[in-house]
Amino acid sequence: xxKVKFGIVGIGNxxxxxxxxxxxxxxxxxxxxxxxxxxxxxxxxxxTRAKINCYTDLEKFxxxxxxxxVIVAVPxxxxxxxxxxxxxxxxxVIVEKPITVHKKLALELLEESAKHPELVRALxxxxxxxxxxxxxxxxxxxxxxxxxxxxxxxxTDWFRTQSYYDSGDxxxxxxxxxxxxxxNQCPHQLDLMQWFFGMPERxxxxxxxGKYHDIEVEDEVNAYLEYADGKVGNFIASTxxxxxxxxxxxxxxxxxxxxxxxxxxxxxxxxxxxxxIKTCKQGFKKSDTWLCDVRTSGDAPYQxxxxxxxxxxxxxxxxxxxxxxxxxxxxxxxxxxxxxxGLKDKTVELPIDAEEFAVEIEKLIATSRYTKNVKKLAxxxxxxxxx
Length: 387
Ligand SMILES: NC(=O)c1ccc[n+]([C@@H]2O[C@H](COP(=O)([O-])OP(=O)(O)OC[C@H]3O[C@@H](n4cnc5c(N)ncnc54)[C@H](O)[C@@H]3O)[C@@H](O)[C@H]2O)c1
Fold this sequence. Notes:
Helix content: 25-40%
Radius of gyration: 22 Å
Mean pLDDT: 94
Number of helices: 12
Structural class: alpha/beta
Distance between the termini: 27 Å
Low-confidence stretches: 374-387
Strand order of the largest sheet: 14-13-12-11-7-10-9-8-15
CATH class of the largest domain: Alpha Beta
Shape: globular
Strand content: 15-25%
Bound molecules: nicotinamide-adenine-dinucleotide
Largest sheet: 9 strands, mixed
Number of strands: 15
């Protein structure tokens, strides 16, 4: 195989962006797309559209289209069923983030995924390819920071207006989307939290539902995390603040990292805190420091293409995956734990009980204002033949 033939399911905001990304690649090509709404195909430029097949029926798409790999870019509830169907047809998969809505559904997907080790299975965790994020990961894993004691991530610049929430009927509803800021806007930060720092043992959070918008899901979360090694974390997210903040601060034995406004700054202690605190004879004196402006190079604007390229290389020549599908459950579980804590008004231990959380989501779905059933493409034939 010289080129990987991709198909995309869901040609909305993200799927149409993936169409353009694949168009810029040399060892991948788009051969087919699938969407339950045929109007979605108008998002594809006419030149590309002339070269591909468009389907409205998933089963036909999977059995007839000339594709090696499928990108799943539909609303989150349907990620598992479509990815499972694709793997059963022998297709490599890239699933959009979040892996799905809750841990129980994600476990079902991963159970099937484990049966297909011959296929490449990845999640679109594109922010792992941001050079500064890769640098932070390296600084942590190489021991450069020493023991981490506190992590604060304020991610309140996900501002959204009411018109955003009104732009798609599945959005911000328990039945259609399954969650709010934790599930739609924050999956990247939740994944990076676990990628950088591991999973906490305990989470205590407050979640506010429709605090700033006329929506039923959470648009503000304040969470406190406790880790087995003594480290603590604070995670604060909102879609109702302007201008909002995106600031990651990591306090460690050898200094402090701040990543904000695209700038990565490391204030490095000349003497590690754990040593200085015991050996310094002056009561208020801190160690001297260096201010390090950490520079990174790389292709930050092409994050999604980076993942598609990585998967293409994995299929063609076994390149190691940046974001394996099975890692997607960790960030999801972190968000689920925050929501569960907020709903129950109590501290939640991790790993969470997948069944317990699924029951909570079912209760919320029962109260949902969104009345349509979650769309299932696999068994529908609403629009007939491929065209
Ligand atoms: N990685 C990222 O940075 C990123 C950014 C935005 C969105 N996303 C993810 O991409 C997914 C889609 O989001 P979006 O903003 O593109 O949504 P969207 O509403 O713009 O598009 C969804 C498309 O999927 C189609 N669709 C819905 N159910 C379907 C089904 N069962 N089968 C086939 N087609 C179906 C719809 O008709 C629509 O065209 C979400 O899971 C979202 O979280 C990821």
